[in-house]
Design a protein that fits this description.
alpha+beta; 6 strands; endopeptidase fold (from Nostoc punctiforme); globular; single chain
Length: about 180
């Protein structure tokens, strides 16, 4: 009788654990999809005069307490996360989004986790000696990354004029951070 009670308790705990894991996975997927809907809804936003301005751009900047005219790729990322209640640093400074606790992938590392949709990428600029551009990963493959990013252009500049869907080479990416866990 005692043995059957242990079996019953084990099965009950197992089922609760599986149920919790599935609900956690589902919740994570739902949040990632909501974030993706938000960032894709912003594709085709353009600056008003090409000077980091315009209604939507200034909304992204205000979310991070920045004035009109500041670079806004990181502010765009933070604003999208904020619209979906994802905790973020609310910063317009790209390196703030790539704190070690959030990094899941770095170029040339053997300990990477495969990036997921709604994670963010960072591109390192040697002349700045830091990550100086960021955006969302929509799809990750071993050779290409499909992105949605703000303050870029058709050429992929870090000082562009709008929100664009881009395809970048995976080798261009310096780091990937995860805020949806």
């Amino acid at each position: 009788m005692a043995k059957s009670n242990y079996v019953f308790i084990y099965l009950l705990l197992y089922c609760v654990g599986v149920s919790y894991a599935q609900s956690s996975y589902t919740s994570n997927t739902i949040i990632r999809n909501k974030v993706a809907l938000t960032y894709t809804s912003q594709i085709d936003v353009r600056e008003l005069t090409g000077n980091n301005d315009g209604k939507a751009v200034e909304t992204y900047l205000r979310y991070c307490d920045l004035p009109k005219g500041e670079p806004w790729c990181a502010s765009f990322v933070c604003w999208v996360y904020g619209k979906n209640n994802v905790t973020n640093p609310r910063s317009g400074f790209c390196p703030d989004l790539f704190q070690q606790k959030n990094i899941v992938w770095t170029r040339n590392s053997n300990h990477n986790i495969t990036p997921s949709r709604a994670d963010i990428f960072g591109i390192y600029f040697p002349n700045k000696k830091r990550i100086a551009h960021t955006g969302f990963i929509d799809k990750w493959t071993s050779t290409q990354v499909h992105t949605v990013e703000g303050n870029t252009n058709q050429a992929g500049s870090r000082e562009g004029d709008g929100v664009y869907r881009k395809i970048r080479l995976t080798r261009q990416i310096y780091a990937v951070a995860r805020f949806i866990k």
